[in-house]
Amino acid sequence: MKEFNSLEDILDFAINEEQMAADFYTALAEKMEHQEMKDTFEQYALEEIGHRAKLEAIKNGKEYKVSEEKVADLKIGDYLVDVDTEKTNITYQEALTIAMKKEKAAFKLYNDLAAAASDSASRDMFLMLAQEEAKHKLRFEVEYDNNILTEN
Amino acid sequence: MERSEEYIKNERKKEWRVELQKKTKAKDRMAIERVKMSEQDPNERIKSQRIEVNKGLSAEQAVQEAMRCMDCVNPTCMEGCPVSINIPKFIKNIERGEFGKAASVLKETSALPAVCGRVCPQEVQCEQKCFYVEKLNQPSVAIGYLERFAADWERESGEIAVPECAESNGIKVAVIGSGPSGLSFAGDMAKLGYDVTVFEALHEIGGVLKYGIPEFRLPNAVVDVEIDNLRNMGVKFITNYIVGQTATLEDLKGEGFKAFYVGSGAGLPRFMNIPGENANGILSSNEYLTRVNLMGADSEDSDTPVLRGKNVVVVGGGNTAMDSVRTAKRLGAENAMIVYRRSEEEMPARVEEVHHAKQEGVEFLTLTNPIEYIADENGRVKQVKVQKMELGEPDASGRRRPIPMEGSEYTIDATVVVVAVGVSPNPLIPNSVEGLEVSKWGTIEVVKDKMQSSIPEVFAGGDIVRGGATVILAMGDGRKAAANMDTYLKEKYLSKKVEQ
Prior knowledge:
Helix content of chain B: 25-40%
CATH superfamily of the largest domain in chain B: FAD/NAD(P)-binding domain
CATH topology of the largest domain in chain B: FAD/NAD(P)-binding domain
Oligomer: heterodimer
CATH architecture of chain A: Up-down Bundle
CATH superfamily of chain A: Ferritin, core subunit, four-helix bundle
Distance between the termini of chain A: 41 Å
CATH class of chain A: Mainly Alpha
CATH class of the largest domain in chain B: Alpha Beta
Number of helices of chain A: 4
Number of helices of chain B: 20
């Protein structure tokens, strides 16, 4: 497991993760056949860059806290099969699946890191990051729930 | 057809209407109980896909129900009708026994009254806006039943009036798709004098009215009469013709078509994408219903049969899910069940359809969601793994969303599974027309209320724009598109400045 020596280390890791997610979506956008799906993935990339900026602000001294509020987990992505990200005709339903699964994986990573953290400041930082990812995931789950599971 | 407030008010002041208003006191009208629709016995009707459940009203029942209508000065019911039917006028014609005239009023603005009288969700449209509901908290006038009565009476009488059409202006317009939206558009454009041709990909006209809605709710013969009516108005129909494949829009322009209405619907099935969904025996509701409704697979000697089985699981809670599960019952399923992830209260299906399904012995597993399909050694589905759900706290939108309950998984035996979790727009036109703006959902982007796309001569409406809605909303789009295309074409080809 990666070693973190300071809170700054943790934030640098998380900032890099957000950037990698943005790059992933940008690459998907580039290879999509249809403009509307290019636009969709470009939008997701922008959202990841927004998350990165939020973390950079914390790194630069903006206060943060771990909220007591539990973020709802609709677990929609948990039961869906993985989408083949090599194909060029991904549908919006599949795009949402990719995003839900990606955010869930990030949430799980930070939760695991929080559990393994040796000091409370690091644990709180990881928990804050996990909560952020849970919120991102919920945003995609709600969109899926509202628009894909229309008759279900 | 003029639909101004003044016109509606003047109509109400016609002598015959005033006479009727005076003839029966308001309190006597209000004392009449709402009519009950008689139904075929559930044990009888499940013997055939072709036995209609609702029997319709008798003339006496219809006149009595029409008497309940208060002929309001401000008929709020009309606000609830997407095609703006002059509701009090047709109902009062029924009250005075002029059933044919009532049907003519319906046809002033609706190309498919016998269809709408059967499948429109009146309870959340016109009837919800009725005086009885809004002011008295009592059951509304049965507008839907009366609409069906008038349309059926005309059809059965054989005296079918053809709406008046303007003199031909020689301008050719094409309609892509013969579902409710396309038919509604075609009717209005024919009335305005256009040369209308409807292109249909399938071998039958009617779109979702034929392939989607079973005959026990909407007999094909009823749809056919409405289509014949459009034929009599000069509308041409071409079947087995896939615009986007057989010919492109450019090809059709070459044949002289000046404008297009895309009403190609949402015929693309949607699946859940859970493990095992590719097993044999798992069908989309589109396939299941099309095989039965359009291809006659309910007949034992059908050339295109459909899989039958003892245990049929239908996933979903909409009208399509109800149509599928009730079809399964009629095809001999011993256990036909609905699996739906929310509670019955949230089901998008009409209450009437849920009620009929229960009468027919359909089992409802609510707050239950499939998470995996288990197949036998031949790759044929044998079980559905489901999970119990609970409704979470209301979120910012006030909606309680279903959340899986850990450890609540169990399996259900299934010989056939029908997935009815929604549909996506037909991708053919969006994918084959250069420059057409499409949303991320695959729907065609149009200017709201004008129904005009990013290509000026291409208009669109119904499910290809909405992504999945009701017959009547699709028809409303067709009417709006016709009015706006008329303006566009008159200005472009007839040098007429049309006042909006």
